[in-house]
Amino acid sequence: MAKFTLHDIPDIASDTLDKLGELNINSVYQLAVQNPSELAWGLSNNFVDIHSAARLIANARKILTENEILSKEFSTADDLLVRRHKISQYKTGSSNFDSFLNGGIETQSITEIAGEFGSGKSQICHTLCAAAISLLKDDSLDDSNNEFSQRLPRSIIYIDTESSFQANRVHQIAEQKNLDPEDILKRIYHCNVYSSEQLEALIDNLPKFIEQYNSKLVIVDSIISLHRAEFSGQGTLTERQQRLGKMLNRLRRYADIYNIAVVITNQVVSYADSSHPGFDYMKAAGGNIVGHGSTYRIFIKRSGKNRTAIMQDSPSHPYQRVKFTISENGIEDTSSYKTEEVNELGW
User: Fold this and answer.
1) Rg of the chain, C-alpha, whole Å
2) Whole-number mean pLDDT of the chain?
3) What pLDDT is stored for residue 144 in this prediction?
4) Staple partner for 294: which of 5, 112, 225, 264, CB 3.0–4.6 Å?
5) CATH number attached to the domain at 86-341
6) Is-same-fold flag (6-66; 86-341)?
7) Is the pLDDT of residue 145 over 60?
8) Which fold has domain 6-66?
């Protein structure tokens, strides 16, 4: 198992190390995910300019590259294919939903689950918490180059902005699936968040908690609710989008460098459908910023007593849909399961 610390970074000064510690940057991983301009501002008392900050970050990433944790700056396609094979997939609790995802929720990516209130977004997250634990226990999936992967049992971080997390629901799902509910609950680190600033600060400091709890799956339920409530006027839209973009950019770096899966839930906005008077057309909130920030976008709709998941955007999945239902077991297959290709509008 590779061992490396900030002291291994070439030509790093002791006062810079002290300042990094004050900024809660205590590992090579945490330095590697930083943004040069933000790091330069944080290190301003040490007279570190943006170019020096970028060099520090590049040296940290070089250490991870040399230990085959990150890809080289230029890699051949076959090297990328080998790295692709190192991706883990976490089960959702529904075999048909997993097939719809080509195996499950992937690491090194952001999976966005969008849908209206009551569509089942949080139920998917609760079921995922229970279903993913069995994979998190598999020691064979450990990255031997990960300097903190074998110190603690693997865990899930659940960031809750809508007070939607229910520990008793996860306990119920685990019992129904003949899993150990007590062990599962001990592996979920939950955090209630009440303001957009608190959420942004938590996302900024998330690498510390990923390492501290050895987390392999991060869930943010939901990514936009606080910003949508606090930035409600047209005049605040630009700032809201910039702040959302910054959070998503950080989450993508974390997913890549730590080889973790990130799941975010998203709300919807409704538009009048002029071609069908009396009907509304729904789409995911957050505009292009959230759309481009996610690797996979899944839209959830109510379908009678069941739910329909639609793959709206993906670099590797077809445009298709799958039905599932919600029960005491969490999300599970329906007896009338059918996967269908859909058009560009998701219908």
Assistant:
1) 21
2) 86
3) 45
4) 112
5) 3.40.50.300
6) no
7) no
8) DNA polymerase; domain 1 (1.10.150)
CA angle 315, 223, 260 (to 5 degrees): 55
How far apart (Å, rounded) are the C-alpha atoms in residues 55 and 12?
A: 10
- pLDDT of 278 > 90? The answer is no
Residue 347 has pLDDT above 50, yes or no: no
pLDDT band at 338 (very low <50, low <70, confident <90, very high): very low
